[in-house]
Sequence to fold (430 residues):
Amino acid sequence: MGFIQASRGTRDILPEEVATWQRIEAIAQAILTHSAYREIRTPIFEQTELFERGIGEATDVVGKEMYTFQDRGDRSITLRPEGTAGAVRAYIEHKLHAQGGVQRLWYTGPMFRYERPQAGRQRQFHQLGVEVLGSADPRADAEVIALAADILREVGIQGWTLSLNSVGTKADRQHYRDALVRYFEQYANDLDPDSQDRLHRNPLRILDSKDPKTQAIAKEAPSILDYLSDLSKTHFDRVQELLQRLDIPFVINPCLVRGLDYYTHTAFEFQLEELGAQSTVCGGGRYDGLVTELGGPDTPAIGWAIGLERLVMILQQQSETASTDIDIYCASRGVEAEAQALQVSRALQQAGLAVEVDLSGSAFGKQMKRADRSGAPLCLILGDEEAQNRTLQLKWLGSGEQEVLPQSALIERISDLKKKIILSKLAKRV
Fold:
């Protein structure tokens, strides 16, 4: 009988990669916490109606990509395909709007869409997202875009392009939709099959087609910027002004419409050429009508989501993976030495250092090879002689520098050891 593999469109995140994920999450959490955002954790599955009403039944996500099933109570349940609808549902259900002011929320976790698996795009994927509910001010748009830029820069993502557009109000989009239908109807037979299906159902999505022939046709399509109301133009102009004052470069892309029906006014994407067809690493926009659509009070809102798989993939391509998470490797041999090594390692761990204890019991030569492979800057060595004398050897694996130290003096050296470990890790990355 053969072994069981992970389902198509899912993947295991192995220990050597988890360090990169944890680093990204820690950086994002620190930036968001310092910006007054609070974490929210919503269920992985919701009532199907939430996404049908929130995302839009005419979208590809609802029409083709959701994992929907009947539970034992014969209720239609869907694994969440994105995070905004659930966050808004929680905002309404728990009356967060009654607290007054602006609610700044962030979340992270797995999402599910039945798509063709490819690099950086799985059927189970992970997003980090933010939602700002309760502000129609263009400063909220600039704030969330700036936060995304800060996170991407801090984790080490280089060479991104911020594409910016306005999809206006619902009325603006209806006028524009009518113009698009009139334009694309002239070329209906030349469009790719997906775009032909979208022509009368969701024509704005044709602008996002990856088919070269359809893209060429779409280049000559009317621009939504010509159909914006004065209110929408004023909002969009102010967002651009604020981004310029924050020194965040951007390009205007009138074809950027995003894939979900709830967007209004500002739409944006952070893109990386290295990702090819799936170039978007972060996307979002304003959704002023979604809270009302889901049964809540009239509440303007804006948010974004970062695809973590794509972020990790591009970091690996740019060789910006996290440094080793091990500070000290502990090698020991002999019954008493091994017991003392556990005691010493535990004391160091409680003092805030990451320590890996070699449990093999093999010869010191083999343990030292594993110490080198671990990436730890420092190795503690305890043998029979050290155990008898209650000492240990400190060996800096980069320089080969070595010294003998009483075990009782080790904790007194913690501060100096931490500084030297940090410098060793930084030197290795340069």
